[in-house]
Write a structure and sequence with these properties.
It is a single chain. This protein is α+β, with helices and mostly antiparallel strands and 274 residues long. Strands 1-2-6-5-4-3 form a six-stranded antiparallel β-sheet, covered by helices on one side. The protein has a four-stranded mixed β-sheet with strand order 7-10-8-9. The chain has two domains: 143 residues, no CATH class; 120 residues, 60s Ribosomal Protein L30, Chain: A. It starts with a helix and ends with a strand.
Length: 274
Amino acid sequence: MAAMTFAVNFAFAQEDAEGCKDHPLFSRIPGYYIDQCSENFNQFEIVTGVGKQQALEGTVSNYRYNIINEDSKRPSAFQIIKNYENAVLSKGGEKVYLASKPDNDGFTGATFKMNNNGSTYWLTLYEFNDIDACLGFQLTIVKMEAMKQDVTANAMFEKVNSGEPLTLYINFESGKSVIRNESLNIVDELYKMLNTNPSLKIIIEGHTDNTGTKAANQLLSEQRAASLKQALVKKGIAAERISTVGYGQDKPIAGNTTEEGRAKNRRVEIKKMQ
């Protein structure tokens, strides 16, 4: 009877914890199950280098993976990290930091970053209980929502007509000038503003953060301003009522040292043409 009870308990322990499943963007390492999981809006400090951390805020998803069969061949921490690295890179992401053995600050793990459907994801692997033959490890994924904005045509007009710049956070495809669907409502409100105020002429200014080269950012800012103009002209606004200019990374309104600051700098400003 004791042997039977042990066998049943052992089998149950290898199943995912109740309510736990893999993150939608990443499948698990074969041979592991989820022992614990949690998800909530929170702050999380992620390792970005030796002795360096960055505070993030967003939806934090935690997973503790343990091996199903302790007698099976166990992958190394490096092998697990490389599997996730390949998955991130295949989705257009990037490696931020990797330490397959304890660094000078005692950290073993890796940090990656990627964009998906308008949101930025940070992924980190850590707390490996064995570097060479890993029984378990921790995975944390932080989803930072893309900056969104709800503003009406009337509010837009009041701001622009007063002579003050109207700052808009329009989501474009990463590194491109294609306006994403979630920002088409902002384009619609801009159209309403111009359509109901036919004497109004505007300047569209494009701005970026400092990620990448200065020359590339300059071109991207010009292209994004032109893309917004094209969208408004396509809706019926006369092209001569809209001028465009790009300033690249030269006019930040926040620091570029944090993701939050860079998000604020990736913007479009609308000004009244004098």
